[in-house]
Task: structure prediction
Amino acid sequence: MGDTIDRNVPTQAGTASDWAVVAGGHGRSLGLKTDGSLWAWGQNDSGQLGLGDYTDRTAPTRVGVATDWVAVARGADQSLGLKSDGSLWAWGNNQYGQLGLGDYTNRDTPTQVGAARNWAAVACGHGHTLALKTDGSLWAWGWNNCGQLGLGDAANRSSPTRVGTEHDWVAIVGGHAHSLALKRDGSLWAWGYNVDGQLGLGETFDGNVPARVGTGNDWVAVSAGGYHTLAVKKDGSLWAWGWNRYGQLGLGDTDDRDVPTRVTGWAP
Result:
């Protein structure tokens, strides 16, 4: 918008009409245009805009000159992006190793994560990162205090580390400190922080390895908030679970849920 004034109605950012993908939250926004260029704006105290400095921006600012970006993801203060050649890039805060660069040093410009060119998807939690490779394998790194990396322990990782041995993962999401993923067979899996029931497992103990959510094989999409989870089934029905203090589950009350609960106001 070019200013720091709050808005309470949708307001167009600039006049461009060629935006293709956006990712926002935690004080900043990232966007891809149809020409494959990457743009960023908002808070930049950790270099999370990727612009080579630590100055906030109040309007979309182009990140480098590349035109081969195809996906972006953002955590609390880390940013990651995929290029069309399958390479993965990271920048911003790296306190927990969430950039996957083998160290704990912040970056203020996009830096390639290893040399692999077979990355297919990336998602971020508050301080951890999840990614899929083209072979369907699942990888995780960064903050792991609640087992959100799914590696069977609570140790942080500063480099991509494989989760299990399966090759059938198709989608990933990260909450504040919990993670979820879909498999090719339509099953849903969750791990990490679970005090509010956000894993959907019928209890509130943290889990440090992927655990199956129910027995259904009809999940098609999942999204994680900070401490709650939403998912959609093949029939178009919407389900929610986890923290519900503000009614964010859409269930007509403010009671937490520890199992997937159908949002009845949703019309498939």
User: Anything to note?
Assistant: The CA atoms of residues 31 and 254 lie 33 Å apart.
